[in-house]
Specification:
Helix content: 25-40%
Radius of gyration: 24 Å
Number of domains: 3
Strand content: 15-25%
Structural class: alpha+beta
Largest sheet: 6 strands, mixed
């Protein structure tokens, strides 16, 4: 397995490793018996959901210039957006979310599998979808130039970036332009040309500029309220003939920020709608950090003072100052803060009971509703919302919702572990031909197990197996790659 470095890609079956990692963490990567039969039945009804006036409560909004922005590689399109300038400097935003429930019925085989898995898992080399690709990339994906039923979330953004209470309804929609973050982000920032679809359509260009203007206002408003501007490193493998040959950074930009802002606002509208309706729901929360005193210590070590009580605005001011002062170390500081804040979780929120809110986003009302193709919690929220809109009884009693929330939290944690395991394996494969080379690195951890470093280009984590006894967290160091073990995801360096 460990051939000598030759400059050629190292052959290790990452897809098989990903499948094994899924099973090891308790996932069922293959769809159960009965799935094909249900898919065939769904395919026969597809036509009937495309015509206008399907149901009396479904509006026809196909004439609007909807577009989607997602990753270059995304095929499961969950949402589309549209904006309109209103009088008095407000901007009206519509977010259309795929109506997955229209196809995937509660209690079906496909629904049972989704309820067990709760999330799609993105391993870098293969997506293990929560719903069959025939749905998540086909019938329930808001694909370009296809008529789809969507749940529309509408709100207005005022001059200072406050989103209005908003409303929600069902509509027929058509995605006119499937766009991607890198191209749109570079264009919005003035760093690149308009992507072909945008340069060919002046109305689409104006539409995206208006969406960007609304998102910039909203972001500023959330930062005023203490939203955290964190920068953790996300990478993706560059694949060549099914082999990982390089590691690229996933860069945040104005396009990713635009979608983030709209999703936070849309999820807020849904949470408040259900709260006002007196309906129980599943919320996504990040509790006020239990380990705040450790965050205070961390800041003190960097010469800053934070208040004794958790304060997201003070924390963000400190983070902004550190980003300016030491950009190389900022991703590691961000990661430390994320770990100390603790992971997000799903909880049942009963009507008229206060929600713990989301500390990192500086929002009190937050549910997950905008990605039903890839998260089961969003399908549940959609069913609850649609039942309320149609004045039907609620589909889930509180006890069942509580169990689903706990399952979603537990499976999301398992999915993160699969993704982390695979990132390490991918890095070990990509770096294998570079054994013997030197890399600039930064020390990210020192404990009883050893000294850990992150190389700066590519961004890869590894362990110092020789030398570096005197090093401490934050030190910059030149390291030499001495070994990689893709099976275990180990990368070994020496000083």
């Amino acid at each position: 397995m460990h051939s000598s470095p030759s400059g050629h890609p190292f052959h290790f079956n990452l897809v098989a490793a990903a499948h094994g990692a899924m099973i090891e963490r308790g996932f069922q990567p293959d769809f159960p018996a009965g799935t094909d039969k249900e898919l065939a039945a769904i395919a026969t009804q597809t036509g009937r959901l495309s015509g206008a006036g399907v149901e009396s409560d479904i509006r026809d909004l196909r004439s609007l210039l909807w577009s989607s922005i997602d990753n270059d590689t995304s095929k499961d399109l969950d949402q589309i957006e549209w904006a309109e300038q209103l009088a008095g400097d407000s901007i009206r935003i519509l977010v259309g979310v795929a109506d997955v429930d229209a196809r995937v019925h509660k209690g079906s085989v496909i629904d049972g599998h989704a309820r067990s898995e709760t999330t799609s898992v993105y391993t870098g080399v293969k997506v293990f979808p929560m719903l069959p690709p025939e749905l998540s990339e086909g019938a329930t994906s808001l694909n370009e130039n296809e008529d789809r039923v969507a749940v529309v979330i509408e709100f207005a953004v005022d001059a200072i970036g406050t989103a209005s209470a908003g409303r929600t309804y069902r509509a027929l929609v058509r995605n006119r332009a499937q766009l991607a973050y890198p191209g749109i982000g570079a264009w919005l920032e003035g760093k690149g040309p308009a992507p072909a679809k945008v340069s060919a359509n002046a109305d689409l260009a104006a539409q995206l500029k208006l969406q960007d203007a609304a998102a910039r206002r909203m972001l500023g408003c959330r930062y005023q309220h203490g939203a955290l501007d964190l920068e953790t490193i996300e990478t993706r493998p560059v694949m060549l003939q099914n082999q990982a040959v390089e590691i690229a950074n996933l860069e945040k930009n104005r396009a990713t920020s635009l979608i983030e802002e709209f999703m936070v606002a849309a999820n807020g509208v849904i949470a408040r709608t259900l709260q006002d309706a007196g309906v129980a729901s599943i919320r996504r929360i990040v509790r006020t950090p239990k380990r705040w005193e450790r965050i205070v210590e961390l800041a003190a070590g960097l010469g800053a003072t934070l208040p004794a009580e958790p304060d997201s605005k003070a924390l963000n001011d400190f983070l902004l100052a550190q980003r300016q002062k030491d950009p190389d170390r900022f991703p590691d500081l961000s990661l430390a803060v994320v770990k100390l804040m603790g992971p997000g979780e799903y909880v049942l929120v009963k009507p008229h009971h206060p929600s713990p809110g989301h500390f990192g986003l500086a929002v009190q009302d937050y549910t997950h509703s905008t990605a039903p193709n890839r998260r089961f919690a969003d399908v549940i929220t959609q069913r609850i919302l649609k039942s309320w809109l149609a004045s039907r009884p609620q589909p889930y009693p509180d006890g069942v919702l509580n169990g689903i929330a706990a399952r979603c939290t537990e499976r999301e944690d398992a999915a993160r572990k699969v993704e982390r395991d695979m990132q390490k394996r991918i890095a070990a494969v990509v770096l294998h031909p570079r054994i013997g080379q030197s890399f600039r690195a930064i020390v990210t951890g020192v404990n009883q197990y050893g000294t850990f470093v992150r190389t700066l280009d590519p961004q890869v984590e590894g362990m110092l197996v020789r030398g570096g006894k005197e090093l401490d967290v934050g030190d910059k160091v030149l390291v030499k790659l001495v070994a990689t073990d893709p099976q275990r995801g180990f990368i070994d360096f020496a000083t």
